[in-house]
Structure formats: C-alpha cells, structure tokens
C-alpha cells in the first residue's frame, strides 16, 4: 500500500528537454574553470535572498503539476495549535483517526493488488563508468535533467553527465547547481528536485552572520561551548568594544579586517591600529592568529568538505580528504612589520597563485603542487613530526558539529516556511580551519559554494571522488514519461482517499506523541510511525553509501553534545536509535551488505537491495507524509 499510495500522490512534472542538438553542443563545450570559492552570498540581500522580484518560472508546455503543488501545499504543516485542545477530544479524535487510517490502508491495498509496479530508479554515479556509453537494449534510458545557474564546476558537470544527465536551461529539472534559490522558487519544488543549498545558509556563509550565530550560541551555552572562533567584532556596531579590548592589551594586538561577505581574500588587510578604521566602515574585524603552525616556515590552512544531507534531523558528514593550502612566502613572526605582505599572511590559493615564484614553478612537471597538499598528506606529515593527529582532528570535528548546531534552529525555521519536501535540499560546505602553534584549531570561515573546480591532478583526485560519493549518498532519482503517466493515473484513482480531511487530522496524534518525546516523557522508539521508520531507514542507507564521508552527527559520540542540541523530535529519534545496542552492532558491520542489516530490524526487512531500498525510501517517505496527513514536512 505504501508504494501505491505514494505513487498516487506523487507530483508529476513532464519534462521537455532542450533541443537535443543544442544540448549536445553544450556538453562538448570546454569545461568552465572556476578559480576558488564563489562568493555567491555577497550578492544576496539582507535576508540572504535575492531581492529581485521573482521572474515567472519557465513553464514547459506539458508541465501540469502546479495544481498538485498547490493542493499539497494546502495540506501544509499548520494544523493549528493542538496543544490548546482539550485532552478528551484529542483521545476521541485519535481513535477515530486510527480507524479511518486502517480502513483507508486496506482499501489502498486492494487497489495496489490490482495495479502494476512502478519503478523509480536511482542514478549510479561513478568515477569510471559512463552511462552515456552503455547501450541499453529495449526502452530508452531514463534521463535526468540538471540545471546550472551560477557557478558550476567540472567535477559536478562530469559526474552528472557520466550518470546520464542532460543539461537543461528550462524549468523541468531534477538537480540544481549554482546560486541558492529565491524564496518563491523553493516553495515550488516538487518531490524529485534536489537543490544544492538549504535556505538560510547565509547564516554560515556570510562572515558577519557566522560570527553573530556563534556568539549567540556561546551566550546561550557558555563560553566553553565554542572555543574555535578568533575574537570577532562587527564594525562599526562593535567599534567601542574593539578599541577598549585593543587598549587593554597595550595596543599590541594585530587584527585582520575583512568585508562582511566576500571570498578569495578580496578586500582583506591586516591592521595594527584599529583606531585607523573609518568609523563608518562596514566590515568584520578579527583578532589575527599570529602564531600559526608552520610547515617549512610557511603558514597554511585546511579546506574541509562537510556535507549536510538534512537539517531535520541534522545529519552531517566530513569527507576524509581535503586540501591544505600554503602561503607562497615564509611567515614573518614580526606581523606588525610585514602586515602589508599578503603572500606571507593569507593562504588563499587565488592570492598566492599570482605570486611570481608560483607562476615560475607551475611549469615544472611531476612536482608536488607548490601551494596545495591533500589533507591526507598533511596528516601524514604531522604524524611524522610527532603530532597526535587523532586528538587534533577530534577537535576539528567538534568545531564542525558545533558550528552547524549554532545555526540549525534558524535554518530549520526557513525550511519549515519555504521547502515543501524533506529531501529537497542538501549542501556541501567548505570549512576553512587553521591550526596555531599549539595545535588548537580555529574556524576561519565557512564557504557555502566551495570551489569544485579541478585544475590540477591533486584537485581532480580529491574532488571528483568526493562529488561521486556525495551524489551516490543523496540517492538522486530519475523518472520517465511512461512512469509519470502511471503515477498520474493512480493519483487520479486515489485522490479522493488521499485528500480526506479526516486523515489530515491524524497528525494531531503524532504531534502529541512528538511533544511527549521532546519533554522526555516518552521513548521515541515506542510505536514508530511510518515517517519515523522512513527517517531511520534513510539515515542508515546514507551510512551504507557514505563512501569517503564520515558521519559526524548523529554519531555515538554526539551524545556528549546533548546539552547543546535543541530537543527536536527527529534528532531525538536518531539519537535514541543509535543508543540501541543492535543499531551499534550494525554500524560496525555496515559495509557488509544490506542482507545482514535486513535480519536485524523490522525497518529494513523489505529492503534487501539498494535499488529496492531506494524505491521504498522515496515511496515510504511520501506515503508517510501523505497518508498520515502530516502536511508538508
Ligand atoms: P576569504 O573568504 O576572502 O578567503 P577568509 O576569512 O577565509 O576570507 O580569510 C582569508 C585568509 O586570511 C585565510 O585563508 C587565512 O589564511 C587568513 N586569515 C583569515 N582570518 C584569520 C585570522 N583570524 N588569523 C589569521 N589568519 C587569518
């Protein structure tokens, strides 16, 4: 029934692809090269969204799902404040709803038995396999359509093309890469669409917002909760505090002054006398970490790739490789004397690659990259120098998790307001972290559009593999017109059942249960709902497919952060799930097979293979949402 019901409700978007010839032409164009992180955030308005009026979306002639979108949206999460209702009426309603749901499910099952199977394929991404070259007998291969609006990168485009993706410039797309969507665009997403940004991640990407978010997190949880941000002032608001602190330190500190929202080292300078800043200057001023860890006398920072697949529940992963980026010139301990020499003080690749020595050395072949190392090479080097890298990187992981915890509440509110489906968004962040001479990690910034351009063998090796792992983990689906037609027909047959107003009220019961769990009065693993099972299954499946990504949250060790985590139901559900001994056993053996997992929990009993699991995942998610009438989220 799960499959049938969800199919019946799945939105249908018929895709008209661009003219094949022109698409082909585009594929054959040379790869655009992108230099470094794109400061997409800088072009956004105060609230992080483009202030341009939303242009009418391009409509494909046979796109007919807008009506459905509106209907779905009208079932939205706003079910009224059930807490105000009387207990008695709640109970009566609850039993009515249970009965109604049972009847509905048995009717749906009968319909399902009469119906035919609809397959929803999951796209395989690979470094070596190119689906375009694989002949498929019989039916034409299902295609998926990607749209790039803003900066793209060769790694992403190549991964999509190899998986059979076709670039489109129109409205009917599967996956989106580039700028964050506008508010109205988020609201119109259908369940097949995946977007590479969550709304509201400017809280991380803008330097001023990041500092504010972390400072507010520290105010709520105490100064020890976050020790990784260099002391930061938003100028001119914090000017007085800045000058007072500077004088208190005998006017000896150096500060680094940055535009509030920019990238690639643009507009950055070192300042030894903050009084010289124009009182109206709008910028971020930060204490300069003047004793960095040096390698061969040069300063470096680390680029870490962090993937968030969901904010509710929070699920975040760190890739097991990354980059270390070096200054071209040796560091000068006399910061005051050398403050104008950015080749000694800024580690940005885009700054340092303009240095004459780099330009000269670039020509030499077979040499190690003069400005970049892989993160693995850096770790090996540090281990060789006697550094306890495990301890250092535990702190780095702590920094990453806490940074995301500092913004998750606000991003979740944006998600609730704007995004129709739980899995519409994901985001890859570039965390820039520096180590000081005492091996303490410092968060320098978070990039919401980290560069995925690969212009050297080192970049290619790291970024291509990461991108492939990322898309495999996300489980991007494709669909064909034939299948969409089947879905549409079933939707018509079942629409009266699905939109039953009585079923929508089932969510009252669930909300009550969730509130009890959040207050600690109930175990979330008691009476798992289908949506709960879906979330657990989704999370387990991600782990299976994580490749080089390591899950940092939730993890068995995230229990120590309990004090810092908002008691959000889905977070509690996964945290509790991980506490169960059999769940832990399974994590240890997770790479063996799905079959092993299957025996150990009822949630996975119907998902022996990845493909089948994906089908269930999609269907189960939709069915749970629609059937229980939980509304949009
Ligand atoms: P951008 O987004 O323009 O790259 P960053 O904040 O990343 O700006 O700063 C650019 C470079 O300046 C960093 O890569 C790092 O080398 C250096 N830097 C930034 N902040 C500090 C700091 N507080 N202490 C020492 N060096 C810093």
TrEMBL record:
GO terms for molecular function: ATP binding; tubulin binding; tubulin-glutamic acid ligase activity. Residues 1-115 are annotated as: Disordered. Residues 16-28 have a biased composition (Basic and acidic residues). Signal peptide: none annotated. GO terms for cellular component: ciliary basal body. PROSITE patterns: TTL. It catalyses: L-glutamyl-[protein] + L-glutamate + ATP = gamma-L-glutamyl-L-glutamyl-[protein] + ADP + phosphate + H(+). InterPro entries: TTL/TTLL_fam. Keywords: ATP-binding, Ligase, Nucleotide-binding. It comes from the Eukaryota. Residues 29-38, 49-69 have a biased composition (Acidic residues). GO terms for biological process: microtubule cytoskeleton organization. Pfam families: TTL. PANTHER family: TUBULIN POLYGLUTAMYLASE, TUBULIN POLYGLUTAMYLASE TTLL5. This is Tubulin--tyrosine ligase-like protein 5.
């Amino acid at each position: 029934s799960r499959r049938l019901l969800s199919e019946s409700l799945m939105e249908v978007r018929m895709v008209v692809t661009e003219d094949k010839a022109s698409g082909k032409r585009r594929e054959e164009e040379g790869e655009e090269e992108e230099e470094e992180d794109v400061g997409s955030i800088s072009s956004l308005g105060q609230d992080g969204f483009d202030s341009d009026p939303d242009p009418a979306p391009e409509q494909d002639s046979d796109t007919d799902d807008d009506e459905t979108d509106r209907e779905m949206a009208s079932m939205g999460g706003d079910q009224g404040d059930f807490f105000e209702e009387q207990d008695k009426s709640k109970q009566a309603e609850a039993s009515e709803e249970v009965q109604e749901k049972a009847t509905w499910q048995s009717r749906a099952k009968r319909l399902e038995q009469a119906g035919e199977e609809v397959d929803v394929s999951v796209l395989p991404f690979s470094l070596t396999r190119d689906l375009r070259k694989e002949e498929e007998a019989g039916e034409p291969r299902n295609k998926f359509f990607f749209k790039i609006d803003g900066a793209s990168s060769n790694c992403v485009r190549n991964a999509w093309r190899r998986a059979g993706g076709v670039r489109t410039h129109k409205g009917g797309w599967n996956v989106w890469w580039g700028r964050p969507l506008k508010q109205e665009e988020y609201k119109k997403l259908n369940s097949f669409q995946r977007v590479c940004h969550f709304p509201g991640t400017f809280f991380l990407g803008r330097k001023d917002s990041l500092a504010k978010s972390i400072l507010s997190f520290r105010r709520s949880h105490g100064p020890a909760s976050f020790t990784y941000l260099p002391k930061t002032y938003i100028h001119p608001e914090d000017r007085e505090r800045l000058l007072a602190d500077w004088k208190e330190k005998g006017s000896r500190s150096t500060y680094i002054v940055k535009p509030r929202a920019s990238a690639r080292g643009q507009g950055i300078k070192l300042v030894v006398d903050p009084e010289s800043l124009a009182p109206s200057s709008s910028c971020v001023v930060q204490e300069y970490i003047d004793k960095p860890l040096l390698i061969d006398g040069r300063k470096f920072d680390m680029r870490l790739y962090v993937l968030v697949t969901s904010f509710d529940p929070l699920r975040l992963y760190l890739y097991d490789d990354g980059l270390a980026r070096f200054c071209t010139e040796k560091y000068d301990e006399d910061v005051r004397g050398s403050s104008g020499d950015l080749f000694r003080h800024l580690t940005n690749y885009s700054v340092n690659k303009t240095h004459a020595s780099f330009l000269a050395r670039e020509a030499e072949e077979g040499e190690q990259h003069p400005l970049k190392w892989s993160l693995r090479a850096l770790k090996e080097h540090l281990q060789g120098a006697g550094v306890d890298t495990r301890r250092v990187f535990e702190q780095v992981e702590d920094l990453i998790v806490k940074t995301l915890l500092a913004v998750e509440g606000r991003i979740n509110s944006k998600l609730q307001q704007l995004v129709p489906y739980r899995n519409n968004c994901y985001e890859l962040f570039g965390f820039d972290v520096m180590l000081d001479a005492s091996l303490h990690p410092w968060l320098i910034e978070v990039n919401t559009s980290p560069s995925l351009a690969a212009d050297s063998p080192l970049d290619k090796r790291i970024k291509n593999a990461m991108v492939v792992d990322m898309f495999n983990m996300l489980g991007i689906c494709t669909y064909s017109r034939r299948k969409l037609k089947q879905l549409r027909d079933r939707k018509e047959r079942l629409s009266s059942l699905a939109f039953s107003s009585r079923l929508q009220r089932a969510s009252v019961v669930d909300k009550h249960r969730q509130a009890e769990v959040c207050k600690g009065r109930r175990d979330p693993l008691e009476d798992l709902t289908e949506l709960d099972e879906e979330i657990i299954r989704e999370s387990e499946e991600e782990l299976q497919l994580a490749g080089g990504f390591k899950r940092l949250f939730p993890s068995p060790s995230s229990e120590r952060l309990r004090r810092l985590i908002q008691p959000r139901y889905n977070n509690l559900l996964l945290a509790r799930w991980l506490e169960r001994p059999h769940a832990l056993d399974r994590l240890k053996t997770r790479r063996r097979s799905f079959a092993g997992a299957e025996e150990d929990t009822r949630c996975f009993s119907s998902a022996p293979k990845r493909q089948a699991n994906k089908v269930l995942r999609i269907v189960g998610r939709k069915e749970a949402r629609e059937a229980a009438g939980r509304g949009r989220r």
